[in-house]
Each structure stands twice: as structure tokens, then as C-alpha cells.
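Researcher: Structure for this, please.
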Amino acid sequence: MLAVNAASAEGGVSIYVLGVAQDAGYPQAGCYQPHCMRAWEDKSLRRAASSIAVIDESAKAKYIFDATPDMREQLYALQKIAPDSEYKLNGVFPTHAHIGHYVGIMHFGHEAMGAKGVPVYTMPRMHEFLSTNGPWDQLVRYGNITLQPMVDGEPIEFGEQLRITPIIVPHRDEYSETVGFRIDGPNKSAVYIPDIDKWERWDTDIRDIIRSVDYALLDATFFADGELPGRDMSKIAHPFVAESMLLMQDMTAEEKSRVIFIHMNHTNPLLIEGSKEQAAVKDLGFNFAYEGMRLEL
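Model: Predicted structure, C-alpha cell format:
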């Protein structure tokens, strides 16, 4: 069964969820509808853009997947459980070049942290994008970040306990490829796919991916058709949560429990604590991510 909020065993590896919202966070800029106003008026209801960290206790290393616009607060959340005085930030892994997934590297720059040589792992098009477009190329030239190459499907080993593998997935690729990541720890494994087009546009069956890991953190941008009034949502490529659950309905209860929905648009009722949609996801045997969720690897 899904083991959440389990403190990592001494010397262990764990995933720590830093954010669960779509790129623009919750509430979203310019949204003053009731579903956003509740979070404008109550700061405790606000949610950061989707990001996870991996913490390796034995290596005293930490890794961030997706550098979001909320990186400042997310670095602090990570600092509280894996402080810089003890853990080195050994890698940042952006999934693609949409705003919620890479712009947080600005905080490593000359005007902010003035970091030295933070490894940022990139696919070829992302490498080119960051190297040749301002202001990102300044971080490269000043040595605030060091771009490290990745190859689709080729695992990267970090010591004896952690292996990270990029997996290209179909999505809007205006500036870079889009990848998900398979993360293998000493005992368990996970896949992180916060952004993807409809499952049928991928030449891989997501159900096979789920069966191959212990945790599957998957795109939940929208819950269902009709969520955006006045918009033709058939033109939006993301798999709706309702569609994903229907696709996975014949999986075993244990397999369904591995699914953790993440990356929720400000309109997605999964962001509303106690909503009927949250209850439906749980009743059907699935899970949804929340900030502070910890998954032992």
C-alpha cells in the first residue's frame, strides 16, 4: 500500500512534495473568481507550483524536480528538513520549458543567491534554450548553474542508492523537449510526469508504467471536461483526472493506490480540501498529492 509521510529510514532516500498546483500556482494571477478568492483571502489555502524533491540521507544530497516560480519558498521548505549546512543540492531536473518548470532557476542567479555551479540536468533542446536565450544564458556564463546533459531513457547514477532516468513524453514543445522522470531508490521507485498530452498520444501505456513503479505522480491539470467555462476543452491536450481514472478502472486496488495526481490548475477542485472530487478520487482507490507528502524510496 501507499506509504506516505513515512520518515526516511536512517541512510534512506525519500521524495518530498514541494508543490502541487499548475505552473501559475493557486490562486492564479488575475483570477478573482470565488474559487480563487478563498485563497487570496486565506493564505493557508495557497498552493505552490508542482515540484518534488528527493533527499538522500546517506549521501547528504538533495535534488529538485522542476524549478518553479515558487522556488524561493520551496527552497525554504526543503531547508527545514534537509538544511544546506548538511545536504548539498546535487541536481535540478526541469521537465520542460514552460514557466512552472524552469523559471525558478532565476533564484540561483547574480541578482539573487549568486549560486556557484548548481547542476541543472537538461535534454538537448533545453540545453540549447538555456544556453542561447537571455536571461538564462547569463546564469550559464556566470557559472551560477552548470548544465549537465541527459539522454532519453538513459539512467544517471547518483551513488549507490539513487538512479534517475528521463523519459520523453508528448506535450507542447515550443522551446524544449518534455520529459518525465523515473526515480529509483534503494527499495522503491517512482515516476514523475506532471505534464503530458492525452495518454493515447503516447506510444507507452501508462498502466504499464504504473505497474512498474511503487508511486506514480501524474498530470492532474484538469479534473473533468467543462471545468473552463467558455473554453472548448477538447482542444486541451492534458488527460483529465476523470479520464485517467476511467482508463485505470480495471487495475487492481493495489495498483490504483500507486497513482498520485499532481499539477492541478487553479480551477481543479482537487485543490479544495473536502471537495466531492477529492472524495471520489479516494473512493475509487487513487490518491492526490499534497505539500509535505513524503514517500519512502
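Researcher: Any notable elements?
Model: The first strand starts at residue 13 and ends at 19. DSSP finds nine helices and 14 strands in the chain.
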